[in-house]
Amino acid sequence: MLNSDRNRMKLNSDKWFSEVYPDDGCALSLELSEKLYEEQTPWQKLEVYQTTKFGNLMLLDGCVMLTGRDNFIYHEMMTHPALCMHSAPKKVLIIGGGDCGCLREVLKHPIVKNVHQVDLDERVTWASEKYFPELCESNNDPRAILSFTDGVVFIEQAAGNSYDVIIVDSVDPVGQAARLYSEEFYRACYSSLSENGILVAQSESPLFHRDLIKSMQTRMADAGFNDVTTLFFPQCTYPSGWWSASMAFKGSKPLNYRTVDFNTEYYNNDIHLAAQAVPQFLR
Ligand code: AG3
Predict the structure, then answer these.
(1) Domain with 7 in it
(2) Ligand 1 atom nearest to 202, measured from its CA
(3) How far apart are the CA of 19 and the centre of ligand 1, in A?
(4) Residue with the nearest Cα to atom 2 of ligand 1?
(5) The domain boundary residue, chosen from 34, 67, 100
(6) How far is the CA of 14 from the centre of ligand 1 (A)?
(7) Percentage of the residues of the chain whose pLDDT score is greater than 70
(8) pLDDT surpassing 80 at residue 3
(9) How confident is the model at residue 180, as a pLDDT?
(10) Mutate to test the pocket of ligand 1, among 171, 180, 205, 243 (most ligand atoms within 8 A of CB)
(11) pTM over the 0.90 mark
(12) 97 touches ligand 1 (CB under 6 Å)
């Protein structure tokens, strides 16, 4: 396409989905080819579309949760760095993560003995099984348990020393989900982690939500964690296209990390180190 044609192209609202970020005066648009599903679940509005170039798209309450094309970056970064930094991550808990993308990555680690995924909304997993079957290919692994209940209540009732790694794959910190970003919640995670346990939680955009990242780091430290590190990575279909995950260590932050011996699309040893480089404005 010539540049002059490109400039004349307007977004036709029937063909395009846009997630608008009003606080930041911008939006992300994806070209749609078909609407595949829509449901108001007891918790949220769930929609699935087929896009022209990004594979299937899942929205929750109008926010992009994942696309077939780029979800691998997020799911690999939410799982492999933390699992590789733990010397023996045998028991893993995923809070949220109903699309099962994190679950699939966790189960790639042979050292993992069991993974419990706790998401509020069973319909998200149903939709993922139907429209993102590649993410759900390990759901029948005997090491996996899927529960559909409130993650905050679940972790408050969990016994001490229950998990080696806890992964919080949640939606943005609005409404009910805001509880997953509180110091109280991090305290409950701390208590249920084993001695050198690691917590990793999605922590939004470094460009748009720097105050949130800073306050998550502070709350994690205030909850008792010994060390906190944020990982940075691209995620082109989330606000600003740049995303983060924050890790909290119950013991001291390990200097060594295990190398994966299975296929990944984004994560590798160089990425493991590079993702920890902190931008100047977040120091
Ligand atoms: N969880 C984080 C999604 C946040 C995206 N925010 C937005 N589009 N406003 C994603 C779930 C993937 N397993």
Answers:
(1) 3-67
(2) 2
(3) 12
(4) 171
(5) 67
(6) 23
(7) 96
(8) no
(9) 98
(10) 171
(11) yes
(12) yes
The partner residues of 45 in beta bridges, in order of sequence, read 40
Tokens of 251: 């013991």
CA gap 191, 188 in Å, rounded = 5
CB 28 within 8 A of CB 239: yes
Closest C-alpha to ligand 1, atom 7: 63
Check pocket membership of 83 for ligand 1, CB cut-off 6 A: no
**Which atom of ligand 1 is closest in space to residue 78's alpha carbon?**
13
Looking at the fold, whether 93 and 194 belong to one and the same domain comes out as: yes
Give the count of domains, the chain.
2
Q: Tell me, what DSSP letter sits at residue 23?
A: G
* Cα 228 to middle of ligand 1, angstroms: 21
What is the pLDDT at residue 45? 98
Same domain, 264 and 194: yes
pLDDT band at residue 7, thresholds of 50, 70 and 90? low
Q: What is the pLDDT of residues 10-52, one digit of tens each?
A: 677 789 999 999 999 999 999 999 999 999 999 999 999 999 9
Beta strand residue intervals within the chain, DSSP E: 16-21, 26-40, 45-51, 56-60, 63-67, 91-96, 114-119, 144-148, 163-169, 193-202, 227-234, 242-249
For ligand 1, atom 9: residue with the closest CA:
63
* Dihedral pair phi/psi, residue 156, rounded to 5°: -65, -30
pLDDT, mean of residues 238-256: 97
Active site residues: 169
- Say yes or no: CB of residue 171 within 6 Å of ligand 1: yes
- 45 and 106 belong to one structural domain: no
Report yes or no: 230 and 282 within 8 Å, Cβ to Cβ: yes
- Segment 146-174 shows an average pLDDT of 98
CA of 111 to the centre of ligand 1 (A): 28
